[in-house]
Specification:
Length: 226
């Protein structure tokens, strides 16, 4: 119940922040960085699968995620352009709440500019289930009208993870329909999950509605700069 109240409070805070934060520049409105969301366990990514990307430097991403039998509230902070750290509270039916930490570094090969690597850890202290992963992210199609030239209309992610990812391949895809909506699909080492993501053009607010395995899944993220 405590986590449910916390999740509700963070959701309300996210909605309020989305309404009151000032307008950003046109470039910020259409930047692909505006689509970055916390995954269920915290790191920047899709629904449950992290991507190679990290939170923007000096930005804190506050996220909540709700599923039929589990809930999570997280914060992820970009400490540099290439690294993030985070903390998440996970509440599962029939189990006590768990507070876990996470971290990820982003690597861009100097001789290959069309993909990035992410190396990360979730719960390295094994409070919940210590997990490690590596994932590559790349774009293969041009952006839809309304997005900046450097953005990508289709992004693919492929990697491998241990712990919560069951020592299996993980990955997913993001298909950008326009500057606001994108379709998400992923495999988290156990289940196939799908969702529709909405990214506000002027405010740092995103919401994702989908299905994780056969359960309804809802998550939201709001970013604040410090």
């Amino acid at each position: 119940m405590k986590l449910q109240r916390l999740a509700l409070a963070l959701s309300l805070a996210a909605l309020i922040s989305a309404c009151v934060v000032g307008s950003v520049t046109a470039q910020d409105e259409i930047s692909p960085r505006a689509t970055r969301m916390n995954t269920f366990h915290g790191p920047t990514g899709l629904l449950r699968v992290p991507t190679a990307f990290v939170a923007v430097q000096n930005n804190a991403q506050y996220g909540v995620a709700l599923r039929e039998n589990e809930r999570a509230a997280s914060v992820t902070y970009g400490i540099t352009d290439y690294a993030e750290i985070g903390a998440t509270i996970v509440d599962q039916d029939g189990r006590s709440n768990k507070a876990i930490v996470s971290g990820k570094i982003n690597v861009i090969p100097s001789n290959i500019g069309w993909f990035q690597l992410g190396l990360g850890a979730i719960d390295p202290f094994d409070v919940y289930d210590d997990s490690y992963y590596i994932v590559a992210s790349t774009g293969i199609l041009g952006a839809p009208k309304g997005l900046e030239e450097k953005s990508i209309g289709l992004r693919l992610h492929l990697g491998y993870g241990t712990g919560i990812y069951r020592e299996d391949p993980i990955g997913g895809a993001e298909l950008f329909l326009d500057e606001r909506f994108s379709v998400i699909g992923e495999y988290d080492g156990d289940d196939f999950n799908f969702g529709l993501r909405y990214s506000h053009r002027r405010q740092p607010f995103r919401i994702l509605v989908g299905v994780a395995d056969t359960d309804f899944f809802l998550s939201s993220t709001v970013s604040l700069e410090f």
